[in-house]
Each structure stands twice: as C-alpha cells, then as structure tokens.
Amino acid sequence: SGLAYICEGLKEQRKGLVTLVLWNNQLTHTGMAYMGVTLPHTQSLETLNLGHNPIGNEGVRNLKNGLISNRSVLRLGLALTKLTCEGAVAVAEFIAESPRLLRLDLRENEIKTGGLMALSLALKVNHSLLRLDLDREPKKESVKSFLETQKALLTEIQNGCKRNFVLAKEKEEKEQKLQQSASMPEITITEPLEEEEEEDQQADREDGQNGDVVSSLEEVE
C-alpha cells in the first residue's frame, strides 16, 4: 500500500518530521501495522492524525506498542476510526504508559461504558494528558442505567484532564521560581563586592594623602 512506502521513507528520515496528517485516506488495520513498526524510529513526531480512517480496534492494537516506544507524540487524532470499547482499552493502555501525550481526539467512535471506564482508570496514572475529546452525548446501551454511568465517567475523564492542567501549571510556576532564586545570589554577592572595592580605593587614596603630608613635614625639619 501507499502507507508502506511512506513508512519506509520515515524510517530513513528519522529526524525532522513533526506533523503527520493522514486524514481520510481509507487506511485500515494493515496500514497501522506498518505505522506501528515505524513509530519507534520517528522520535521527532509530535502530531499524528489518523482520523476518518476505518482502522478499527485491530488497527489501534497494531499502533499501541509503536506509540509506547515512540515517546515523542504529543497529539494523537483517532476521530471516526470505527473504534469500540475494545479499541478504547488499547488506547487507554497507551495513555497509562505515556509521559508526554497532551491531546487525544476520540470523537465519533462507539465508545461505551467499558471503554470509558478504561480511559478513566488510565487518567488516574497519567499526568500529562490535558485534553481528551469525546462525544458529549452518551452512546445507546441495552441497560438504561449505563447511560448515567457513561455521563459520570465522562465527567471523571474531564476532571482528570483538568487536574493534569493544574499540575502542569504548578510545575511551570515552581520551575520559574527556582530559576529566579538561583539567579538571586549573583545579585546579592556582586553588589557588596563593588562597595568593598570602592571603600578600599578610598582608603588607599587617604593613605596616599597622609604619606604626602608626612614626607612634607620631614623635608621641613
């Protein structure tokens, strides 16, 4: 397939590629097998959009190990990719292992209670994901009570993303304070040294003037 040739080229390039958009190209699980093998070699890739392709649950499973090994992907698009709860579980396993993923789009997929539960659990151990896009309305279930469960899980997922956002903000502010405090001693040390140098120079001038006076008195005597 065409994706196989693209993946071979990506293996050769390795560096430089930051964004790869393969939106609506009729890609299937077969193509995702090529992509899964390629991802560990593309350590610069930050955005991967595979939306509107019928890759299905098997396709996501083919991607999972490659995404985990990649460690560089920050944004992943899987909207309208024929995922169900089974595929969501595979995605959740990737989320739990990812220390860098910032955004994930899973809209327009048939992810119901089981899949949402897996995603919610993954967010309890993930501290990087800031945005997880899911359909707002719960999917139809055979058991009506599951609709309320879906709503509760959607809220938990969004709260997990909000928590990560707050943690990221606090970490950034803490790092800024550490940088500021690290530079403060340089200011407090240099200023007194300058004052001491001026005092020493003034003392030297006074000693010189006193020496001149003594010499003059000796000449008079």
Question: Could you please describe the fold and organization of this structure?
Answer:
- Belongs to the PPP1R37 family.
- Residues 174-221 are annotated as: Disordered.
- Residues 192-201 have a biased composition (Acidic residues).
- This is Protein phosphatase 1 regulatory subunit 37.
- InterPro entries: Leu-rich_rpt, LRR_dom_sf, PP1-Reg/Actin-Interact_Protein.
- This protein is an alpha/beta fold and 221 residues long.
- The chain has one domain (2-174): Ribonuclease Inhibitor (Leucine-rich repeat, LRR (right-handed beta-alpha superhelix)), CATH 3.80.10.
- 63% of the residues lie in helices and 7% in strands.
- The protein is built from six helices and five strands, in the order H-E-H-E-H-E-H-E-H-E-H.
- It has helices spanning 2-13, 29-38, 56-70, 85-97, 113-125, 145-220; strands at residues 19-21, 47-49, 75-77, 103-105, 131-133.
- Strands 1-2-3-4-5 form a five-stranded parallel beta sheet.
- Helix 2 (29-38) packs parallel to helix 3 (56-70).
- It is flat and about 100 Å long.
- The N and C termini lie far apart (111 Å).
- The model has no long low-confidence stretch (mean pLDDT 88).
